[in-house]
Amino acid sequence: MNLQDIPKIKHTNSNNFFLLCGPCAIEGEEMALRIAEKVITITDKLEIPYVFKGSFKKANRSRIDSFTGIGNEKALEILKKVSDTFDVPTVTDIHEVSDAAIAAQYVDVLQIPAFLVRQTDLVVAAAKTGKVVNLKKGQFMSPEAMKHAVQKVKDAGSDKAWITDRGTMFGYQDMIVDFRGIPTMREYAPTVLDVTHSLQQPNQTVGVTGGRPDMIETIARAGIVNNVDGLFIETHFDPANAKSDGANMLHLDNLENLLTNLVAIRKTINNL
């Protein structure tokens, strides 16, 4: 799987990590365009290959009254507008087999959520669209087990797979990133570290997932040092009022400084 296989992706010869970044969920057109424009300005400056991320719907929610989306077609149209406006590829997650063919008409990368990565029909449906498939490692799975998810994509006739680590749950209300898994998973496919979801604190008694955004740079730096191919970071200009995952998102104002530091670390690593 080569980054050059993704339409509209830029800076592929910069020897940088690539970045999947954007809001957790598409809340509206203005917010999506605002976030995309800011991230693209930063990634162009730093020569980071960039894919805009936004969920067109949220299926895995803590409560029945949690925000799930603004409407599937409306959100997918916004993702397409982001792509068309800024000439940038996009990624969204899918939850049902029928989502694969629909979302593939609008985005360049289909993401399989961590809780669903063992669902064979869903993985195969995503692979058969011909799009890149981003396989999020289940919080309950070992790094070694992800080779089977990658193999499902290959058996469906595609070699376009990534793996994304989003932490492992060793207790009821916290995640741990085991960096020993990064080189293991890189043997199977390019590997991404989902920095912000790794800092979730799920299963809170209030029914809203918590998080540790103060640890974002710590986890991201460790990922770069351990040669991850890409980073996944959710960001928002107003995390406190974001409709999904605000507790673990990075404030948009802090993104440029973080990425600047990470690019400097990557350059150092590349020169070792």
Could you explain how this protein is built, in words?
The protein is an alpha/beta fold. The chain has a single domain, classed as Alpha-Beta Barrel (TIM Barrel), CATH 3.20.20. Helices cover 33% and strands 16% of the residues. The chain contains 8 helices and 11 strands. It has helices at residues 29-46, 72-86, 97-103, 120-128, 146-155, 181-186, 216-225, 255-270; strands at 18-22, 50-53, 90-93, 109-112, 132-136, 161-165, 191-194, 200-201, 210-211, 230-236, 250-251. The strands form 2 sheets. Strands 1-2-3-4-5-6-7-10 form an 8-stranded parallel beta barrel, surrounded by 5 helices. It has a two-stranded antiparallel sheet with strand order 8-9. A hairpin with an 8-residue loop joins strand 8 (200-201) and strand 9. Helix 3 runs parallel beside helix 4. The longest helix is centred in the N-terminal third of the chain and has 18 residues, at 29-46. The protein is globular, with a radius of gyration of 17 Å. The mean pLDDT is 92.
